[in-house]
Write a structure and sequence with these properties.
Pfam families: EAL, GGDEF, PAS_9. This is EAL domain-containing protein. InterPro entries: Cyclic-di-GMP_PDE-like, EAL_dom, EAL_sf, GGDEF_dom, Nucleotide_cyclase, PAC, PAS, PAS-assoc_C. It is globular, with a radius of gyration of 31 Å. Helices cover about 45% and strands about 25% of the residues. It contains 21 helices and 21 strands. Strands 13-14-16-17-18-19-20-21 form an eight-stranded mixed barrel, surrounded by five helices. It has a five-stranded antiparallel sheet with strand order 2-1-5-4-3, with helices on both faces. Strands 7-8-6-11-12 form a five-stranded mixed sheet, sandwiched between helices. The chain folds into four domains: about 1-40; about 50-145, 2-Layer Sandwich (Beta-Lactamase); about 155-310, Reverse transcriptase/Diguanylate cyclase domain (Alpha-Beta Plaits, 2-Layer Sandwich), CATH 3.30.70.270; about 320-565, Alpha-Beta Barrel (TIM Barrel).
């Protein structure tokens, strides 16, 4: 068959149309499949997240069912209303920062306390994102929230329990230290039960515990001003009473009356009457030195003298000697290159390998390896801290420059705010070009007082590939803010939770929620203080990514060959 030119062109055109149709059909099927998948993803997101959109003035234009379910408002009740309808108790400064961020076409991350229609509060981890048109102009805002109320409340419950003495149900030493640090012009009295060990020896520890509970209750009942006077159990048979802005003579008189009253009325034990006598001491020093000075005078108390008031002369000379001793030792260590990093491995529970190390400062004194517990605080007083920090960072970078491991360096917010330290870190990142293996671990838990400065530093180090970790996560509400604001890569779960995880159901629940929360944020978790195999198995069961602790390995001076040794041990 012979085709004319016209027929040939017509046939070719039909063939091209057929090919075009087949391609379009395939593309349509692909788009239909992708749309179906996208729809499912959208439904899943809508079900798990609280979503709302707003116009340029912040008025609500859309909320999903989850928003209504959690806030208890109907769609009609919130439509067109400002988002402040669910606002909790945050400061205006937070919302000012929020608006500044999103108006500059950036995403704002944070933790907010919202209010339901019935007045109840709920907490959300939230990111608010501006939606831009093709001209890069903002047309609306979308807020995606993830409710973390259970996590926050459980953490607060744990914090309360950590501050409560389980035997006497009064504040413990941790609570005492916390309250003193927040107090204004405090004074303290430390009371001890005279010859309490005899009670335990003669009647047994169960009876001794009952005596402690009775004495604690009696002290509480005898407090004249229960708003100002607070009682705590320090340890064993030692109680502390703290008051603020109290007249010195009045405070001494009140404590004396409490002691005399308790001593007059016997405690009946197994048909026997036991008279409890209290010895007590006082300190009226500044809150920074209050507990330290109170403990000093305990050491100077005499058997025939039950009342002592702190005098600086008692320990001032020893305090000076101690500071001078460590200041000289630090100076010598810096001069002789004896400030060194030790490294503790961080073990991946998925790959069953060591993949990272944390650098920890040590002072070498002859054959002794000295923990920073003894010298770090004194280094801050003697202005040696910055040099210590710089030395640690330099040596850690130098050690890991040719090693294929991620490594973490501890920093405080004060370090970051120090131009001396922050600029030095940037210089090292430029020089060594190993930023992709560096993790900066934030070790403090106080509020960020200069977020702009901190954020600028993290934006800069991220340009070099560095990662960010938060230490002691779960120990306070502020940590959730850090996680949202700083967009972290790792969280190290508070060691007090891990240590008690086998015996404390509350700790276990908190850790489980923290892990689930972190997974939702695509943040990896690290458990510290893993001291035995049972704890390791429990944190593995809860889905934690990495572990660190003496069960894996104590901090060491050299990591060479360590992976081969660790792999021989049974961790999996």
């Amino acid at each position: 068959m012979i085709f004319t030119n016209t027929e040939y062109l017509l046939l070719l055109l039909m063939l091209l149309l057929l090919i075009f149709f087949i391609l379009k059909l395939k593309e349509f099927k692909k788009l239909k499949k992708e749309n179906h998948i996208l729809k499912q993803y959208n439904e899943a997101t809508k079900d798990s997240n609280i979503i709302s959109t707003a116009d340029l003035k912040g008025n609500i234009t859309y909320v999903n069912d989850k928003f209504c379910e959690v806030s208890l408002y109907t769609y009609e009740e919130v439509l067109g209303k400002p988002h402040s309808i669910v606002r909790g108790e945050e400061d205006d400064e937070i919302f000012q920062q929020l608006w500044e961020t999103i108006k500059n076409k950036k995403v704002w991350y944070g933790v907010l306390k919202n209010r339901k229609k019935n007045g109840e509060f709920y907490w959300v981890n939230i990111n608010i994102r501006p939606i831009l048109d093709e001209k890069n102009e903002i047309i609306e805002y979308i807020a995606i929230r993830h409710e973390i109320t259970d996590l926050v409340l459980k953490t607060e419950e744990l914090k309360r329990n950590l501050r409560l003495d389980s035997l006497t149900n009064i504040g413990n030493r941790y609570k005492l230290i916390e309250d003193v640090s927040k107090s204004v012009n405090p004074c303290i009295s430390i009371l001890d039960i005279v010859s309490f060990s005899d009670v335990n020896d003669f009647f047994g520890y169960k009876t001794g515990d009952n005596v402690l509970k009775i004495v604690a209750r009696k002290i509480e009942e005898l407090l004249i001003d229960k708003e100002n006077y607070k009682v705590y159990r320090d340890h064993s048979d030692t109680f502390c009473i703290v008051a603020q802005n109290e007249d010195r003579d009045k405070f001494i008189k009140n404590i004396d009356e409490i002691s005399k009253t308790i001593g007059k009325v016997p405690i009946v034990i197994k048909s026997r009457e036991l008279y409890v006598q209290l010895s007590y001491i006082f300190s009226f020093e500044s809150k920074e030195n209050l507990l330290e000075t109170a403990n000093i005078i305990k050491r100077y108390s005499q058997a025939n003298k039950n009342i002592i008031i702190y005098d600086k002369a008692l320990e001032l000379e020893k305090d000076y000697e101690k500071n001078i001793f460590w200041t000289l030792k630090i100076k010598k260590a810096l001069d002789e290159d004896k400030i060194v990093p030790y490294f503790q491995p961080i073990y991946n529970l998925k790959t069953n390998k060591i993949e990272k190390y944390e650098a920890l400062v040590r002072l070498i004194d002859g054959n002794n390896v000295i923990s920073p517990y003894y010298f770090l605080d004194i280094s801050k007083k003697s202005k040696q801290y910055l040099q210590l920090t710089k030395t640690m960072i330099q040596k850690t970078f130098d050690y890991f420059k040719d090693k294929d491991f991620e490594f973490s360096i501890n920093l405080t917010f004060e370090d970051i705010k120090s131009e001396y330290i922050s600029s030095f870190i940037i210089e090292l990142l430029k020089e060594y070009k190993i930023g992709h293996r560096v993790v900066f671990e934030i070790v403090e838990s106080e509020e960020i007082d200069n977020f702009r400065k901190i954020n600028e530093f993290f934006v800069t180090i991220r340009e070099y590939g560095c990662k960010i970790a938060i230490d002691d996560f779960g120990s306070g509400y502020s940590n959730f803010e850090y996680l949202a604001k700083l967009n972290v890569d790792y969280i190290k779960i508070d060691g007090s939770l891990i240590k008690d995880i086998l015996i404390n159901k509350s700790s276990q629940n908190i850790v489980s929620m923290l892990v689930n929360f972190a997974k939702g944020q695509k943040v990896k978790t690290i458990a510290e203080f893993v001291s035995n195999k049972d704890i390791l198995n429990k944190v593995r069961e809860l889905g934690i990514d990495y572990v660190q602790g003496y069960y894996i390995k104590e901090p060491i001076a050299s990591i060479d060959g360590l992976n081969d040794i660790i792999s021989l041990r049974e961790f999996s």
